[in-house]
């Protein structure tokens, strides 16, 4: 026993190195494989505050660009409103029924940290549980789909960006409603792969890809991107489709968090199918 | 000694903030990310006791990890660098220099010495870093390319920062 201690003491540098590496390895294996991290992520208040302080300062440099984007979004919304009004005048429908409450609510938030160059990218927002943000809510922006919330603290939240290979989003081709799932290819921040589209249907370069609405996270028809190119891998029945994402992840600043008020109801109903 | 403590504490905070707030946002061509926070470890005196060196390495790594959502990866890489540092020191300088306890910076080591020191340290640190990241996603050639390009950028930025500080 004494000689063991003496051995340990003589080689304490090596022993300490091995111990610290073991701790690191445990951290790598146990935390990086799961997103449900509670402490070691940027939704905790210390890192959240640092990121937010820096991001408010940085905002001043992009005011012009942000303004232009907001103006563009305003004009497109105004156009939609006008079209809707015109439709209602032409084909009057019954006044809105209050039982049919809208299923989706939107909360605007600011991106306080974001990355595009890692194999698994995460995004942090400046709103948290106090503002009604909960895990599993979708994140969208004027350009299209951004990601999904995974962790919330009272004032901040973090989530998987679409540029994270662990996230797959139910998507469909807008013109013919064939659905598949969209996963990031891990290569470039503006392309992703659309999978499970059978090769007997006709697709064209430039076709719009939108969310299918099959998950309760995103409403149907939110823009994801357009088809950049496609081919059929030999021996499979599915297309290999590359989608050019419509969201510019490099300049992402303001986003909206989607809350589906009927999510729990739907999930409960769907879980019945699994248990039976 | 007390004065040095204050100097190193400021350097620690400044390097972590520069790393997570600025350098992690600089993305040359999408997949090059320079990591210069290890400059803190490089500039510690060679006479620092081993347990203190490894402890600081772990603490520095975990600080960067918390901001990056990558618990363990940077900590492991920096501890590995700390472990290799005495060996690197013996490789690039004489025993007398190590025992004098000077800060191994650009003026003390000279350009050639500091270049060798930085290159070896960055290679060791980044190797562990990118290997640990790859361990969770595969794709060897892609990782190798990221590794080599990031090494070059880290070395250039570390040397440039030292020139700015010591040039006068």
Walk me through what this model shows.
The complex is a heterodimer of chains A (276) and B (168). Residues 34-39 of chain A have low confidence and may be disordered. In chain A, the strands form two sheets. In chain A, strands 1-2-5-4-3-12 form a six-stranded antiparallel beta barrel. Chain A has a six-stranded antiparallel barrel with strand order 6-7-8-11-10-9. The longest helix of chain A has 28 residues, at 63-90. The radius of gyration of chain A is 23 Å and the shape is globular. Chain A has five helices and twelve strands. Chain A has three domains: 2-32; 45-91 and 101-165 and 252-261, Thrombin, subunit H (Beta Barrel), CATH 2.40.10.340; 168-245, Thrombin, subunit H, CATH 2.40.10.350. Helix content of chain A is 31%, strand content 30%. Chain A is an alpha+beta fold and 276 residues long. Chain B has 168 residues and is mainly α. Chain B has a single domain, classed as Arp2/3 complex 21 kDa subunit ARPC3, CATH 1.10.1760. Chain B has helices at 2-22, 39-42, 50-68, 73-92, 95-100, 106-134, 140-167. The A-B interface holds A 12-14, 16-17, 20-21, 23-29, 31-33, 37, 40-42, 44, 47, 50-51, 54, 113, 115-120, 122, 158, 165, 186-189, 250 and B 17, 20-21, 24-25, 27, 30-33, 50-51, 54, 57-58, 61, 65-67, 69-73, 75-76, 79-80, 82-83, 132-133, 135-137, 139, 142.
Number of domains of chain B: 1
Assembly state here? Answer: heterodimer
What average pLDDT do the residues of chain B reach?
Answer: 84
Q: Give me the number of helical elements of chain B.
A: 7
What would you call the shape of chain B? globular
Major sheet attributes of chain B: none
CATH superfamily of the largest domain in chain A: Rod shape-determining protein MreC, domain 1
Strand-pairing-aware structural class of chain B: mainly alpha
Please mark out the parts of chain A with pLDDT under 50 across 5 or more consecutive residues, or reply none. Answer: 34-39
Extract low-pLDDT stretches of chain B. Answer: none
Overall outline of chain A: globular
């Amino acid at each position: 026993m004494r000689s063991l201690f003496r051995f340990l003491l003589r080689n304490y540098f090596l022993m300490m190195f091995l111990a610290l590496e073991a701790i690191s390895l445990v951290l790598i294996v146990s935390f990086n494989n799961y997103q449900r991290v509670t402490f070691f992520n940027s939704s905790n208040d210390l890192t959240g505050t640092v990121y937010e302080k820096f991001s408010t300062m940085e905002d001043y440099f992009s005011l012009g660009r942000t303004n232009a984007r907001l103006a563009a979004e305003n004009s497109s919304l105004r156009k939609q409103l006008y079209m809707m009004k015109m439709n209602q005048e032409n084909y009057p429908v019954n006044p809105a029924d209050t039982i049919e409450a809208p299923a989706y609510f939107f909360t605007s938030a600011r991106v306080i940290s974001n990355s595009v160059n890692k194999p698994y990218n995460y995004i942090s927002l400046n709103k948290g549980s106090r503002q009604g943000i909960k895990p599993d809510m979708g994140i969208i922006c004027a350009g299209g789909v951004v990601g999904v919330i995974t962790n919330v603290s009272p004032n901040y939240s973090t989530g998987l960006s679409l540029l994270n290979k662990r996230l797959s989003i139910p998507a469909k081709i807008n013109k013919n409603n064939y659905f598949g799932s969209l996963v990031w290819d891990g290569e470039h921040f503006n392309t992703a792969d659309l999978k499970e589209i059978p090769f007997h249907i006709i697709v064209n370069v430039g076709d719009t890809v939108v969310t299918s609405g099959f998950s309760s996270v995103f409403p149907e028809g939110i823009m994801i991107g357009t088809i950049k190119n496609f081919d059929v891998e030999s021996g499979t029945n599915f297309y290999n489709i590359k989608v050019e994402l419509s969201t510019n992840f490099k300049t992402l600043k303001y986003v909206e968090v989607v809350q589906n008020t009927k999510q729990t109801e739907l999930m409960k109903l769907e879980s019945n199918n699994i248990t039976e | 000694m007390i004065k040095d403590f204050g100097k190193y504490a400021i350097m620690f905070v400044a390097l972590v903030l520069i790393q997570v707030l600025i350098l992690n946002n600089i993305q040359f061509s999408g997949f090059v990310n320079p990591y210069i926070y290890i400059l803190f470890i490089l500039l510690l005196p060679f006479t620092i006791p081993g347990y203190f060196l490894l402890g600081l390495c772990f603490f520095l790594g975990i600080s960067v990890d918390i901001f990056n959502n990558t618990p363990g990866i940077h900590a492991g890489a920096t501890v590995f660098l700390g472990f290799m540092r005495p060996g690197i020191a013996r490789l690039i300088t004489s025993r007398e220099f190590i025992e004098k306890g000077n800060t191994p910076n650009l003026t003390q080591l000279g350009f050639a010495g500091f270049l060798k020191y930085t290159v070896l340290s960055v290679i060791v640190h980044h190797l562990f870093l990118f290997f640990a990241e790859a361990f969770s996603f595969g794709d060897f050639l892609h990782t190798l390319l990221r590794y080599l390009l990031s090494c070059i950028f880290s070395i250039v930025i570390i040397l440039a920062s030292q020139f700015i500080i010591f040039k006068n």
